[in-house]
Design brief:
It is a single chain. The chain is 68% helix and 0% strand. It has one domain: DNA polymerase, domain 1, CATH 1.10.150.250. The chain is mainly alpha-helical.
Length: 94
């Protein structure tokens, strides 16, 4: 699969999770950052897309500790992503 097709597929999956909060978090990140990621980071993002929404949301928002398997550089980028950080800083994490 070529890189453009892979990115389009990941972007779609990021926006169509079934859990609106995760759509917004992962979809916004995907729109702004996927084109900049290297192959290893894209692999990490795909792994994140495989996680269940509930636990993933709690890991990203810091409500529960993140398992080591998901504590990756790309997860750090998602947590530190400016729109998300601004929202959480204002107490709107849910």
């Amino acid at each position: 699969m070529d890189i453009d097709h892979r990115i389009k597929r990941m972007r779609f999956r990021a926006w169509h999770r079934g859990f609106k909060e995760m759509d917004l978090i992962l979809g916004s990140f995907a729109d702004r950052r996927l084109d900049e990621l290297n192959a290893d980071e894209l692999d990490q993002f795909e792994e994140i897309l495989e996680a269940e929404d509930g636990p993933l949301y709690h890991w990203i928002t810091g409500k529960v500790p993140m398992p080591d398997a998901y504590n990756t550089p790309i997860m750090t980028q998602i947590r530190d992503f400016t729109p998300l950080a601004e929202t959480l800083g204002k107490g709107r994490s849910g």
